[in-house]
TrEMBL record:
Annotated region (Disordered), positions in chain: 231-252
SUPFAM superfamilies in the cross-refs: Periplasmic binding protein-like I
High-level lineage: Bacteria, Bacillati, Actinomycetota, Actinomycetes, Micrococcales
Signal peptide location: 1-26
Species annotation: Leifsonia stereocauli
Name listed for the protein in its UniProt record: Leucine-binding protein domain-containing protein
Keywords: Signal
Source superkingdom: Bacteria
Length: 252
């Protein structure tokens, strides 16, 4: 079994600039223009516990799909905790609606130390939430186009008997498990670490379908691609980036 490797550096951050200096020259010589270069920013350290928040359309025209997605996330969290949690700690999850004021959600993200916000595959992400960064990242759940079979439906209903229909539940389940695997791969539960490691658990050579199977492969230094309940892993994209371009939210 391997020791989880730490993630040292995250993606380059545009805003951190170094100016390249130049040696003293005579007044007649033209000084070269300083060159702006990007410096890597360190991955934010996690607090040892994976904290999730779903922000879904709980009152609009896609409310039924959103309820199924809540069931999928709840099922994943329950099964993760039954296996000892993520990084040895229980997973914490709260559910919120897209009708909630974005500023209130951002405040709660900080208060609850939320690492990952789970968002639907479509729909604008308010810039206040998309721009939080650092300890928190936004991951889109994949499109709800997989139909659960009888066994999967029973599992989803065990987490939320009120969910009907169950379209979207499998994708939400898989997205949650993939986030947990990214935290396991990074040995770090922070959003910035998960954002970097989620590609690593989505593009390897060994296909695995459960958290236990995938985590065991990671412990043996095997590169994995998580297929999960749906066969596609449930993610809208390998690297969680807000899409489309975020727009300002308005109070409702």
């Amino acid at each position: 079994m391997r020791t989880h490797r730490s993630v040292a550096l995250a993606a380059l951050v545009a805003g951190a600039l170094l100016l390249t200096g130049c040696t003293a020259q005579s007044q007649d010589e033209q000084r070269p223009t300083p060159t702006a270069t990007q410096t890597p920013a360190p991955v934010v350290a996690g607090d040892g516990s994976l904290h999730l928040m779903t922000v879904l359309d709980m009152a609009g025209k896609t409310a039924a799909v959103s309820q199924a997605q809540v069931a999928g996330v709840e099922l994943a969290v329950r099964e993760l905790d039954e296996q000892g949690g993520v990084l040895g700690a229980p997973v914490v999850v709260v559910h919120r609606s897209t009708s909630t004021d974005a500023a209130a959600i951002v405040k709660e993200l900080a208060e609850r130390s939320i690492d990952v916000v789970l968002w639907a595959a479509t729909g604008d992400i308010p810039e206040e939430i998309a721009g939080v960064g650092g300890a928190t990242t936004v991951v889109r759940i994949g499109p709800a186009d997989w139909k659960p079979d009888e066994a999967s439906s029973a599992r989803l209903l065990s987490a939320d008997p009120g969910a009907d229909p169950l379209i979207g539940g499998g994708e939400a389940y898989d997205t949650t498990i993939r986030v947990a695997l990214a935290a396991t791969e990074a040995d770090n539960d922070s959003g910035s670490a998960i954002a970097e490691a989620i590609t690593a658990v989505s593009s390897g050579a060994f296909s695995c379908v459960s958290f236990g199977e995938c985590a065991a492969a990671l412990a043996d230094d095997t590169s994995i691609v998580y297929a999960g309940m749906t066969g596609s892993g449930g993610l809208a994209q390998a690297t969680p980036e807000p899409e489309p371009s975020p727009t300002k939210s308005t109070k409702k």
